[in-house]
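During the no-cost extension, the postdoctoral fellow (Dr. R.K.) reprocessed legacy sequence entries with the updated structure-token encoder. One reprocessed record is reproduced below for audit purposes.
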Amino acid sequence: MPAAAQLRRTRIARTLAAVGTGAAVLALPLIGATAASAATPATTPTVSTTPAGYPNNLDGWIRESLAIMREKSIPGSYNGIYRNVIRESSGNPRAINLWDSNAAAGIPSKGLLQVIDPTFNAYHVAGTSFDIYDPVANITAACNYAAARYGSIDNVYGAY
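Re-encoded structure tokens follow.
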């Protein structure tokens, strides 16, 4: 067999081997996928929700607070609340400030929006928990206070 024909035959054999290998590799996932579809489906994790049905996270707490605020005609927006929560507590509903002037006076700021007990009690919104660490109660009372003092939580850009 001439050298050119031998080289061409070798190239064709290598190409077929590569294509054949590729087809086998492609077939394996299809076979595996078919077998996997017959397996018992995995259970979906349960998402924790508040008693009102909102997600039990910062997004849900803000949305639930806003719903209560609409009912009570307390102004405020999602963005205004979120901005202040992140600045005050980084989204930690159990945050407590033990170093500022309020703490020195024995009334530390607490919760998502760092409210002191007397302010929380004075601006508590009916229908929410009386627990200052309850995220929805804390947000709603703080927004009620901000509305009385600044017109809205949206107008608060620093410690209040």
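Residues 1-42 form one domain. The longest helix spans residues 3-37. The remaining legacy entries will be reprocessed before the final report is submitted.
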